[in-house]
Structure formats: structure tokens, C-alpha cells
User: Which sequence fits this backbone?
């Protein structure tokens, strides 16, 4: 019994000594953690969002509720059956270059050179081509002459508008082209040879235009292309 009691005491002493050594063990200092850069980035983003104008959305942002409502309202606007939006077709520079090359060919060949025709097959006039390519004079007499010609042309346009019964507020950018095309078609004469006297004959023969016939919104895309082709370079035709 005495031996068993002694061994129990010894085991208790060894346990208490082991616990003391654990508590007295020196812990190594942990290295300091690096400060995270995330807060700085967040602060910079918040500052940039404050500096950005309120009406300028950031790149890639979705439409706001107000913008979406506006788009929905525009989509619900009814479109007239015969109305068409203005032409947004890009300008064909190749056609312009071809026309310019033909004019250069006329100038180089001279008044007695071979015949040169435009895209519609009309013969180009040498004197008209050379006169159109000449740089206009800046003298006072030349400027007075051009001003007089401008006033005469405006008076002619006003008379044509009366004959075609086109109100000025309904006259679009293609109206004058469409007038000439209508007279040319009804009287069976070339487009580039239509003059005011032909408008007077057209009216005397009983021809009349339909309401809003020459309004841009009622001219089809095919008709626009035809008018542009007829009007392009028509002043240089023979």
C-alpha cells in the first residue's frame, strides 16, 4: 500500500512539472500582417463615382428606369402607313469618283473628242464641264452676276412651287428634284432639259399633283435613288 501511494504522488509531481514547462514555454512573435490594399481601392472607386457627372453613365452600365421608359414610349409611337424616315444610306464615293473621272476625260479630250456619257447614258457637254470645273472669280462684277443669277433662280423656284401647289412648309429637300421628274415623265422630255416653260405647259395640259406628293416623308426609297441619279451631274449633260 505504501509503495502504491508513493508511485501516485510521483506521477502527480511529474504531471505538474510538465504543465509548468508548457506554461513557461516562450511563444515566438508572429510576423505583422501586411495592410490590405482593398480599402484603398474601394475609397478610390467611391471618389471616382462621386466625381462622375450624374447624367453620364459609366461604361457598360445598364439603362436607368427613366431611359428605359423613354425608349418604350418611342417604340409605341404610331407610324403613318405612307410615311418613311429620312434616308440614312451612306454616300457611295465610288460613284462620285467615276463621275469625276468621266468629267476629267471630257476635259482632256477637248470639244471635238470622242463622246463621253454619264451613268444614265446621257452625253456630257465639254463647255459645261470645263465651265463647272473653273474656279469662280472673286471680283465685284462676278459676285454681282452670281447674286443676280441667284435671285432669278429663287424667282423660278417660287413659280414652280405655285404651279405644283406645294405649300412652303411641306416642301422638303427633294421637292425641286421631284417637280422636274414629274414634268419630265408627263411630257416625255429628258430630265435635264426641263425648264419653266415646260412647267407652264404641264399645267395648261391639265396635269395636277396629288396632295403632299412632293413631301419627303411620302417619297419611297426607290424614288429617292431615281431622283439622285437623275439630278447627279445633270447640269453637265448636253
Assistant:
Amino acid at each position: 500500500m505504501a509503495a502504491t501511494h508513493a508511485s501516485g504522488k510521483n506521477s502527480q509531481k511529474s504531471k505538474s512539472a510538465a504543465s509548468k514547462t508548457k506554461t513557461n514555454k516562450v511563444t515566438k512573435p508572429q510576423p505583422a500582417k501586411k495592410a490590405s490594399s482593398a480599402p484603398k481601392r474601394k475609397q478610390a472607386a467611391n471618389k471616382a463615382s462621386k466625381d462622375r457627372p450624374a447624367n453620364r453613365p459609366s461604361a457598360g452600365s445598364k439603362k436607368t428606369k427613366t431611359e428605359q421608359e423613354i425608349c418604350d414610349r418611342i417604340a409605341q409611337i404610331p407610324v403613318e402607313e405612307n410615311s418613311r424616315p429620312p434616308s440614312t444610306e451612306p454616300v457611295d464615293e465610288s460613284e462620285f469618283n467615276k463621275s469625276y473621272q468621266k468629267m476629267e476625260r471630257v476635259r482632256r479630250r477637248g470639244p471635238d473628242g470622242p463622246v463621253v456619257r454619264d451613268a444614265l447614258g446621257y452625253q456630257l457637254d465639254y463647255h459645261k464641264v470645263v465651265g463647272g470645273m473653273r474656279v469662280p472669280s472673286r471680283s465685284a462684277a462676278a459676285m454681282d452676276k452670281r447674286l443676280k443669277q441667284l435671285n432669278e433662280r429663287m424667282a423660278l423656284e417660287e413659280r414652280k412651287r405655285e404651279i405644283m401647289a406645294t405649300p412652303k412648309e411641306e416642301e422638303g429637300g427633294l421637292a425641286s428634284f421631284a417637280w422636274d421628274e414629274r414634268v419630265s415623265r408627263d411630257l416625255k422630255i429628258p430630265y435635264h432639259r426641263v425648264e419653266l416653260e415646260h412647267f407652264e405647259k404641264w399645267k395648261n395640259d391639265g396635269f395636277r399633283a396629288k396632295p403632299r406628293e412632293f413631301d419627303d416623308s411620302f417619297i419611297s426609297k426607290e424614288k429617292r435613288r431615281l431622283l439622285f441619279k437623275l439630278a447627279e451631274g445633270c447640269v453637265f449633260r448636253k
